Structure formats: C-alpha cells, structure tokens
C-alpha cells in the first residue's frame, strides 16, 4: 500500500461523494406536497415512537444531535444514506424487474469514464496490484435477443479497497471505464480483483459503527451500470464467492444472483469469469433512479 493511499480520510472521500452527488442534476423529484407531508409525518412518527418505546433520555437525544451534526461536518450524508438506506429504495424501485437483479449504486460512481470499446482493459497503473481478472459476458433482452451496442460502465476499488477520485494518490480514471457491447451484445474486460471495502472509520459513520459494536466492511465488489435504448438501466454490483462479508455486508447490498463464479485462467495468470446481463424493457417514467442519461442519451 502506498503512503498516499494510507492517508485516505473520511473527510476527503465524504467531500468528494457530496460534490459528486450535487453535480448530478435531475435528482430532485417533483413530489406533491401531500406526499411530502405523508412521508415526513411517517418518518418523524417512527422516530417519536422509538423515543417513547425506549424512554430515550436527554443525554441520548444530545448524542444523536451531535452525531447528526457530525455527519454533515464530515460530508458523510452520501455515505450514510447509501450504506443504511439505499438498499431498500433499490428493492422497491426494481421489484417489478424480471431480468437481472440490481443493487445499490453507492457514493462513488462518476459519469463519463473513458470509452473503451467492446474489449479492453480498465485504465490501471503500470504496477497495479491485484489478481488479474478477465470478465466477459453478453447483454440480452428478456426474450434472449442480444443487445448490440449496450453500454457497460464498470467502476471498482483497487486491491487495497480505494476508489479513484475519492482517495488521494490514484490516477483520475483508475479502474473506471465504459464499454460498448459488440454486434452480438458481447464484451470482455480485463481488470483486477478488488479488495473488500471498509467504509471510513474516522468520521461520523465510523463512530456509529463502533458505538453500536458493528463492523465497517463491505465484501469485495465490481460496480456496474448496464444500459441500452428502450431498456431500464441496470445498476448492479458483482461479488466474489467465499468473501467473509457476503453474508453480513454493512450496506446490505449482496444478493445470491450477484455472486460470480471465477475460475483460474488457463494460462495460470489470474482468473476468468463470465456473467451475462438481461435488461428489462423501459418501465414507467419515475420508477427509475433520476439523473441517469446513459440509457437514452448516448
Ligand atoms: C459505500 C462505499 C461503497 O463502495 C459502496 O459500494 C457502498 C457504500 C460507502 O462508503 O458508503
Ligand atoms: Fe463500492
């Protein structure tokens, strides 16, 4: 591990994740006041009910207030929400899908990664540490028709668990790229196996994890967005068998359908894995995550 990577701080990744989210236009939903009122009342009602049920004290209330202030000061609202809330939003948004299971986006997606064709290597350092991984597959419709020209965006942590643009010292687009499926909907991506990811422990989210006696780990994962015109965007993560945190992901984002089956490469250098994607036809406007132009725009 380089010393720069060692110095990654919650405040750095938090500030980056906050800025990245604010850059994403179209995130504001046009929600009618009656719905805002209902949702706000129910959330506050759940808080009030918890306070009554457990006789929450003034010192506990003040600890909560200090902690919430700290989440803002550390720039950790994106991290907090994506770890402990997003998985249920994703579950509800995609419950009607018949194709691939998706999962949370998390805080570290950056649009407009380098375009790399149907076959290629993610941008990486000359001495990029980690086990080489050749990841290939095909994108199809529910009926099995190949989706030529489908976009596959891939972003991931390095072999030390750090994301480019959110941890210091990494090249801008390290381990981030956008592939375009060939005439048969196929793609092949050379990368490395990511490490398990530890959510930052030196900020407010880390304080909650240690105060509650939880652990801060996510299992190793590849992040993907797969899109094609006329189809719903699929935001997913793929996991590796045997990871100690597949069963207790702090962000609750692992699904059995998303665990890969890598095999040793025949030439002995690293691993190969095949994983196919099936996209659902476009659903009603508003059902999907806002602010994602890649399905129609490219
Ligand atoms: C967080 C980080 C991730 O890489 C991810 O996939 C989900 C959440 C986080 O730090 O909040
Ligand atoms: Fe991640």
TrEMBL record:
Residues 135-163 form the Intradiol ring-cleavage dioxygenases domain. It comes from the Bacteria. It holds the Pfam family Dioxygenase_N. Transmembrane segments: none annotated. Keywords: Dioxygenase, Iron, Metal-binding, Oxidoreductase. InterPro entries: 1_2-CTD_multi_dom (IPR043029), Catechol_dOase_N (IPR007535), Cchol_dOase_actb (IPR012800), Intradiol_dOase_C (IPR000627), Intradiol_dOase_core (IPR015889), Intradiol_RC_Dioxygenase (IPR050770). Its cofactor is Fe(3+). Belongs to the intradiol ring-cleavage dioxygenase family. This is Catechol 1,2-dioxygenase. It comes from Tsukamurella soli.
